[in-house]
Design goal:
6 strands; single chain; 204 residues; 43% helix
Length: 204
């Protein structure tokens, strides 16, 4: 095994996690980027109002997603790109929350993913005044990227994990999680299995 994963980042139209309007993904194999993908998303109906604050951050406006696939339409492509990988995201709770909430708002099943948070890994790897994505990415040697562009953010996230794995001599993602005292999270059906495993360990 090697350092294999898919880094992912979402931008949202408003403060609701279901309002995904853009996604960026970066596939890493053995510590090297082998593929990237990103596209605009029409947020689920009822969650598709664009907040001025969000637009100011990422630059995406309602007309930009006219004609873009709805969440339910693009989800199979997202799942196919990840191809069963563990997902990595910076502040992963936010991005996993987007997947869960957008699926619920679209009345589709949440896919089964395990994940690791690059923010938490960075906290156990670097000594920084801030662990925001641009600062942590700079520590990993990834600089001058278009922050809040979903694909650029996913590339920065991937760079952090690859650099951290080298720094810790981790052989794979679970090993990196162990070294940095992190638990791999899960969403979808995998979440129930992880919860059951933890309960079993606690009782055992």
């Amino acid at each position: 095994m090697g350092i294999d994963f898919t880094a992912i980042d979402f931008e949202t139209a408003n403060s609701n996690s279901a309002s995904a309007c853009s996604v960026g993904m970066v596939k890493v194999r053995d510590g090297k980027v082998v593929d990237t993908a990103g596209w605009l998303i029409h947020p689920p109906l009822g969650y598709d109002a664009f907040n001025e604050w969000n637009t100011r951050i990422h630059g995406i406006m309602a007309p930009d997603v006219d004609g873009a696939p709805f969440w339910s339409e693009q989800l199979p492509d997202l799942v196919a790109f990840a191809a069963g990988d563990t997902l990595v995201a910076h502040n992963a709770g936010f991005d996993m929350g987007v997947i869960t909430a957008a699926c619920a708002a679209s009345f589709v099943d949440c896919p089964d993913f395990r994940y690791l948070c690059s923010l938490q890994v960075a906290r156990r790897t670097y000594h920084l005044d801030s662990y925001r994505l641009p600062v942590a990415a700079m520590a990993a040697g990834f600089e001058d990227f278009d922050h809040h562009n979903a694909l650029a953010d996913a590339e920065a996230c991937a760079a952090i994990i690859v650099h951290a794995a080298k720094r810790h001599d981790a052989v794979d993602l679970p090993h990196l999680a162990t070294i940095t005292s992190q638990r791999m999270g899960a969403i979808g059906p995998a979440a129930a299995a992880v919860t059951a495993d933890r309960r079993s360990m606690a009782l055992g």
